[in-house]
Specification:
globular; putative xylanase like fold; Papain-like_cys_pep_sf; Putative xylanase fold; two-stranded antiparallel sheet; 9 helices
Length: 276
């Protein structure tokens, strides 16, 4: 391991409270051990996602403490941390060491811009940037343009115009200014989305697979994505395996994806991201 990477890794380890490290370390290593018995062609992403069914939904778990630390929770997640936790487990399963250290290294690499934890602004807050950054890292690949030509131009400003909704930004104009710079760097980008009225398509028309990520796009001013989860086909019907704020836990949603989104006026469609 290169010296710089080792420094960031060890710093992340020290930032985690000892009790949390032990509890989550035991869970992670038990899951990795369980995954070692899977056939080689099994989807690790879906395996780990299903292992988290029933985990409580809790919003704002990354905003604990005064400083930006590498937060690890396998006992409570929101929609984004659920996706990140599952992918970090799948990446750790590919790692030579296959241990808690592998998991934390993968989680930090995925959650932060360029994999570097350097304060609150270094976190990938907007999912459009999360996709872009993790494509560069070779973790995911967006495939939406294979299925749709509908596009939207990004005009992101929700965080900077609602600073009181974010503990770190409230009464902190210097951090807000940094978030504004990040929003401006993304604004003007054109992204493709798949319309929600076509989410009833069967697998032969919508060639996406279990374990792909669905990011729900929105018409809410200043935002790009309002929810994320994993594709899960039930027969020929597309469902979402996700951390649900309604059910208050990780579930395989009983509603087909089409029904889940059709009456939500703020949903416009989905972006489709494959895990590499």
């Amino acid at each position: 391991m290169k010296r710089t990477a080792l420094l960031f890794f060890l710093t992340g380890m020290l930032m985690l409270p000892a009790a949390a490290q032990e509890k989550d370390s035991i869970k992670v290593e038990a899951l990795l051990q369980k995954a070692s018995a899977l056939p080689g062609d099994s989807s690790r992403t879906m395996f780990f996602a299903r292992q988290m069914l029933g985990v409580p939904y809790v919003a704002g778990t990354l905003d604990e403490g005064k400083e930006e630390n590498l937060v690890v929770h396998l006992d409570k997640v929101d929609c984004t941390t659920f996706v990140e936790t599952v992918l970090a487990l799948a990446l750790a399963d590919k790692d030579k060491e296959r241990n808690f250290g592998s998991f934390k290294k993968a989680l930090q690499h995925m959650r932060y811009r360029g994999g570097v934890l350097n304060g609150y602004p270094s976190r990938l807050h907007y999912f459009s940037e999360w996709i872009k950054d993790n494509e560069r890292k070779g973790i995911v690949k967006e495939r939406t343009d294979e299925f749709s030509t509908l596009q939207q131009e990004l005009h992101l400003n929700f965080m900077s115009t609602h600073p009181d909704s974010y503990r770190q930004l409230k009464d902190n104009p210097s951090l807000v200014a940094e978030i504004v710079r990040q929003e401006q760097a993304l604004n003007g980008s054109v992204v493709t989305y798949f319309p929600k009225d076509q989410l009833s398509y069967p697998p032969y028309k919508l060639n996406i697979k279990d374990g792909d990520i669905l990011a729900i796009t929105t018409n809410i001013t200043g935002l790009d994505v309002v929810h994320v989860g994993f594709v899960c086909w039930v027969g020929d019907t597309l469902h979402l395996l996700h951390a649900s704020s309604v059910a208050k836990k990780v579930i395989l949603d009983p509603q087909p994806m089409y029904d889940y989104s059709k009456n939500k006026r703020t949903h416009t469609g989905v972006r489709i991201i494959s895990v590499l």
